[in-house]
Amino acid sequence: MAKLQPQEGTGAWRPAGPGDLQELAGRITALLDAFGRCGADPDGGYTRYLYSGAWQEAQCAVSREMDAAGLSVYYDEAGNLFGRLEGSSAEEGAVLTGSHIDTVRCGGLYDGAAGIAAAVAAIELLHRRCGQPRRTLEAVSLCEEEGSRFPLTFWGSGSIAGRYAPDAPPEAADRSGVTLAEAMKAAGFGPGTHRSARRTDIGAFVELHIEQGAVLEQERLDLGVVLGIVGQRRWTFTLRGEANHAGTTPMRLRRDALAGACEMILEAERQACAYGEAMVATAGSVSAAPGLSNVIAGQAVFTLDVRHPDAETLQSFCDELYGIFEGIAASRELEFAGEQWMNVLPAPMDARLCEAVEAAAKGLGLRSRRMYSGAGHDAQVFSGSFPAAMLFVPSSKGLSHSPEEYTSPEQLARGAAALCNVLYTLAYEEEEKEKGDSQHENVR
């Protein structure tokens, strides 16, 4: 098969020109159209919960497209779907690329699915242009990431990395009382049904994903090089004061739990702003009891989500803020309690792979920047087991988890072209370099 020619003056492989970007844009659009026929929700967008009928239809659609791309298709016991392009050498681990097929309720077309489409299109192009790779390439449609049906996340990547085991699934049930194990079995998956989900033969994972934010669009950039995924801490805080009459209780005599919660929330915002742009703190849920317009709140409950890419900074911020909250509660004579129910450490991406992504962007003439992901992704799960990297493409208006999310075919094609370059570096380049060295020796 004909091989792509290096870009003049760089010595690096890249798509030959605008025609390749147009081809990638068309192929990815067709793939997303095929995936988008599955799980269309009457309320708008797409709903593909793990192991649901819509989810099964989507995985079948991905399977057909992988097969059409010339890949060997198989499932694992958890329901992850792979399209494999066998390499000539079994000495190094496979290079895995893709994302998740499940969605939130009424989600968009691009979250997760764009990464799968880009993976299939990239490997298909590489196979046609460059033949068999040295290292095995695999496109993956991960079965679950969002946690929309069951109270757990990253079931797909977690099963591959060993966080979960399909033969001993967590005791989790959906809103209808169906357990994870029951749903898995009903969909045709589980122990003994397909290949083992646990993998120890993966050498690298590269995930293309929409940014789910507005930074790239606002800065008119083509690509984000993800240095890491932020750590997260989540709490539920409960304040107890004294419910009393709203008209007869002087302000100075009140023990208003809701007012205390409001002061804490505003203080969390002030402190996060003082720590710099990388720190975010969000009070996403607030409730008060008894919840009457003419009664001072005797109890208030609110959640707090804090994220930052550096573990020490995250810890320091949370410790300081907790102390401030205790001071506010004491000054208002309120009982105060905090329950932490999430503590996820930051997940740095592999430095060498990040450099490969940057080199790919530069070789293609793409405008890129380094950035951190404020949202969780499968790459963070894989990063604890083998080298992982992410590249972001722009999201229109920063919208995501919404029927309105959108990334243009041209933006997706530029990201897929960069993905091609990275995959070529990982799976082909060393073999090509060895051939070049051998030819050089012969000339001598």
From TrEMBL:
GO molecular function, one term: metal ion binding
Binding site for Zn(2+) 1: 100, 111, 209
Residue numbers binding allantoate: 234, 294, 307
Binding-site residues for Zn(2+) 2, renumbered to this chain: 111, 146, 401
Organism, as annotated: Paenibacillus mucilaginosus 3016
Record's keyword terms, sorted: Hydrolase, Metal-binding, Zinc
Similarity field: Belongs to the peptidase M20 family.
Residues of the signal peptide: none
Protein name: Hydantoinase/carbamoylase family amidase
Keyword Metal-binding found: yes
The protein's required cofactors: Zn(2+)
Cofactor: record remark: Binds 2 Zn(2+) ions per subunit.
Pfam families: Peptidase_M20 (PF01546)
